[in-house]
Amino acid sequence: MQSRMRNPAVVLPDAMQPIQAILRTAHSGGVDGQTLELVHLRVSQINGCSACVDGGARTAREAGVSDERLAAVAAWREAPYFTAAERAALALAEAATRLADRPDAVSDEVWDTAATYFDEKQLAAIILTIGVTNLFNRLNATTRQIAGARG
User: Fold this and answer.
1) What does residue 105 show for φ and ψ, rounded to 5 degrees?
2) Backbone region of residue 106 per phi and psi (left: phi > 0; alpha: psi in -120 to 50; beta: other values)
3) pLDDT per residue over 30-71, tens digit each?
4) What's the per-residue H, E or C state across the chain?
């Protein structure tokens, strides 16, 4: 596979700075870094973004996520390796990524469960992570960014 072009946020560098600022802000929202990395990885898996899955696995490992948990994140509902809070964040990530899959994209049940474990600031951090991940997935998948390529 060959990429079609460089990532648009690199081609137009004024775009990258505010995107990175949103991610930094999300990481300062009080959510455990491993949880945010799991959310990023799951969203990227759903969207089939190989560059983000590859990079997400790498950053999750750096944040301390075990290989066992990384291997199971796609099947988090059936795997015993995730806390109730992580499961709530992953459910929210899936619902907010698959908006067109159901009329009530993010159900009250998914929202209320997440709100049980995370306060408003933490929910904002998770939602921003989901949104920015979806943005990068769309940029990378559209331009066929290569997994493992840097720069």
Assistant:
1) -50, -55
2) beta
3) 999 999 999 999 999 999 999 999 999 999 999 999 999 999
4) CCCCCCCHHHHCHHHHHHHHHHHHHHHCCCCCHHHHHHHHHHHHHHHCCHHHHHHHHHHHHHCCCCHHHHHHHHHCCCCCCCCHHHHHHHHHHHHHHCHHHCCCCCCHHHHHHHHHHCCHHHHHHHHHHHHHHHHHHHHHHHCCCCCCCCC
For residue 137, what are the contacts with CB-CB under 8 A and spacing of at least 6? 43, 44, 47, 48, 49, 52
Distances (CA, A) of 27 to 19, 39, 115, 142, 149: 13, 12, 18, 26, 24
